[in-house]
UniProtKB/TrEMBL annotation:
EAL domain boundaries: 415-662
Ranges in coiled-coil conformation: none
UniProt-recorded name of the protein: GGDEF domain-containing protein
Pfam family, one: EAL
Length: 664
């Protein structure tokens, strides 16, 4: 970027300091710079995401910018944004984004949809019925038809209409038996843009509803909870239309208003500060909730989870921010207590499996790390009945797990059987890596080796699938990922002087992907070993992206900017929509091994064509026989991996594989 090409859009005065807002036209679109020389440069998509999170109050992290209301950190500088300053920044970003789309910029009117929506987000609605007319008026003022909201019945999967604006004849309920395909689409997506709804295959089962309501296009935001699908909100248009990034920003901001009603904020919770020394002390309301939930779980054969959350070095303002972040993740059935210097206690009274509690903890850990940058966060989880069967037992287990997490640098811990042994194996180099080759199918040239974790034990070598689920349950995935990356980079540094061209592929988990510090950590690891970023291919599964689509996408963009290649593994297990797939900065897409079977050849061809359509390389996996290798090459796969091409080999045999392409 040319320094002299930056154009000043507006200087923003914040507490006596000046925040410069500049822009520059680039071949790829307009760039926005906040903070002048040495500040942060945002692509239009990043500016759009910052705008959304300013509107909703959600925390947001990019490579050198952190927004955690009311603080905006740009590089080494921090600003406290008053409501007036925040609104000025919102309107400046919106004007620049409009300009970047080639629309002439007029002075911002006194009443913009951003201002209206900001005012709505600051109101406290007691029900969705109260909020929908306000949201509907904003939509109608922008030329949309209106808004509809369906929510799930408490004990059923049916989605029932709870409100619409403007009022009209109510559409039918959405039934999983009658709308099976649509429910699958809802369960796999966060945002669904149907530009021509009546021609969209995902909406075929809803044609009667679309016709009766006179709809040509529908933009849908899906609400998910720990127990599954919670509901869907429709923003409706009479005519077919191409939904823009600005439309999606508006939809997500409105969905946040609904979410805040469905998930009460911190101010709606009773945060106790009990003087706790032991459970013999008078019980707090939280402890009564825990005892009651435990009794119900025992009676009905259900599970529950108790979390202990401690954050080292918080001041009063940060404590309040942490409470908001924690409370925002809660469901109606959950309970939260503040324990003073001992942090927080969180009860998840409806948990179907251990991994469910772990997912909540990972989501919570990401929010806290983003909001409280630099502070050590420890989360300990105790599960009933796996870890303890009494209130005291659960409390002790959760507290010990939390302490273990803090002692090892922060993160999430469970004291589940087998966890200590696995943690010891990680800390004492008890795991090992094997490497499997990936070949170019056109000339059988070695292009990469994939690192696969193994656990040598007295009874034999354990495959990754035998112990990584435990690592995920007990919060050790970040540690496992860091260990694997360190070992892979050791091998890359060892063989780099020999002139080997092959790259090293390593799998990472959703826990690592949504950690805002991960790109920086990886960059430091590469620098320490004097390795170029393009020597590494980061592999991740669709589930890792779907767990937190927005955060995952941001991390991938940063990694791509560093020069790291990105591979999507096992494509077809939980297929991402094509619209989302195109937005991800992918280099490879590795197909589900089942597609290599002869009976799945038509599906394999369709998948390969889709991979090529989004501009990435297709990698065929699970190639066990010559016939599979020949068929997948004929169908257009670029690269291949499987036993017919090479078995995974230990590190001591890696040299032969890298230099001559020979495995054992």
């Amino acid at each position: 970027m040319n320094e002299v090409s930056w154009k000043l859009f507006a200087p923003l005065s914040i507490e006596g300091a000046t925040l410069l807002i500049e822009h520059q036209d680039l071949p790829s679109g307009m760039a926005v710079r906040l903070g002048g020389v040495g500040g942060v440069v945002l692509k239009p998509q990043e500016a759009q995401e910052l705008l959304l999170n300013l509107l909703t109050g959600e925390s947001w992290v990019s490579s050198r910018l952190v927004w955690a209301a009311p603080r905006l950190h740009i590089g080494q500088k921090g600003y406290n944004l008053s409501e007036r300053a925040k609104l000025a920044l919102i309107e400046a970003l919106q004007s620049l984004l409009v300009e970047s789309q080639g629309v002439a910029v007029n002075p911002m009117p006194k009443e913009t949809w951003q201002r209206s929506l900001l005012e709505i987000t600051q109101q406290r609605f007691t029900s969705v019925e109260e909020a929908l007319p306000k949201l509907g008026e904003v939509l109608i003022s922008l030329g949309f038809k209106g808004i509809c909201l369906w929510l799930r019945d408490s004990n059923e999967r049916t989605l029932r209409l709870v409100g619409q604006y403007p009022e009209a004849s109510p559409p039918e309920d959405l039934l999983p038996e009658r709308h099976a395909v649509y429910f699958q689409v809802l369960e796999r997506n966060l945002l669904i843009a149907a530009d021509d709804a009546r021609q969209d295959a995902r909406m075929t089962e809803l044609r009667d509803i679309l016709v009766s309501r006179g709809l040509g296009a529908v933009l849908q935001v899906v609400f998910h909870g720990e127990s599954g699908l919670r509901g869907v909100m429709w923003i409706e248009s009479i005519q077919p239309r191409k939904w823009s990034n600005a439309d999606e920003t508006l939809a997500l901001a409105m969905a946040q208003v609904i979410e805040r009603i469905l998930r009460p904020l911190k101010d709606d919770l009773k945060i106790q500060t009990p003087e706790r020394k032991s459970l013999a002390v008078k019980k707090s309301e939280f402890e009564l909730n825990l005892a009651q939930a435990l009794s119900l779980a025992q009676r009905h054969g259900r599970s529950l989870a108790l979390m202990r959350i401690r954050i080292e070095g918080m001041n009063k303002a940060q404590t309040e921010q942490a409470a908001r972040e924690i409370a925002y993740t809660l469901r109606q059935s959950d309970s939260l207590a503040y324990l003073g210097d001992q942090g927080f206690a969180l009860l998840l009274s409806e948990v179907r499996w251990t991994a469910g509690a772990s997912r909540v903890a990972h989501r919570l850990l990401g929010r806290l790390r983003a909001a409280l940058s630099g502070l050590k966060v420890g989360i300990g989880i105790a599960m009933f009945p796996q870890d303890a069967t009494s209130v005291e037992g659960l409390w002790n287990q959760a507290e010990q797990a939390c302490q273990k997490a803090l002692e090892t640098g922060g993160g999430i811990r469970l004291l589940t059987p087998g966890a200590a042994e696995l943690q010891e194996a990680l800390s004492q180099d008890g795991l090992t890596l094997h490497f499997q080759p990936v070949f170019n199918l056109s000339d059988l040239e070695l292009v990469a080796v994939e690192a696969l974790a193994r656990w040598p034990k007295p009874k034999g070598l354990h495959q990754a699938g035998e112990f990584l689920p435990l690592a995920e349950q007990v919060g050790l995935m970040s540690a496992q990922d860091r260990w694997a990356l360190d070992k892979v980079l050791d091998q890359a540094a060892l063989w780099k002087p020999s002139g080997v061209n092959a790259r090293f592929s390593v799998n990472i988990s959703s826990e690592t992907l949504v950690d805002p510090n991960f790109p920086t950590v990886l960059q430091e690891m590469l620098s320490a070993k004097r390795l170029p970023a393009d020597i590494i291919i980061i592999e991740l599964r669709e589930e890792a992206i779907l767990s937190d689509l927005e955060t995952a996408s941001r991390s991938l963009e940063i990694l791509k900017h560093l020069g790291v290649s990105i591979a999507l593994d096992n494509f077809g297990t939980n297929p991402l929509p094509l619209t989302q797939l195109k937005r991800l900065p992918l280099d490879w897409i590795k197909l589900n091994p089942a597609l290599s079977a002869s009976e799945n050849a038509p599906l394999a061809k369709a998948a390969i064509d889709m991979v090529h359509a989004v501009g990435t390389k297709a990698v065929a996996k699970g190639l066990e026989e010559q016939s599979q290798l020949t068929r997948m090459k004929e169908l257009g796969a670029d690269y291949g991996q499987g036993h017919i091409l090479g078995w995974p080999v230990p590190a001591e045999d890696l040299g032969a594989l890298l230099v001559w392409g020979i495995g054992t």
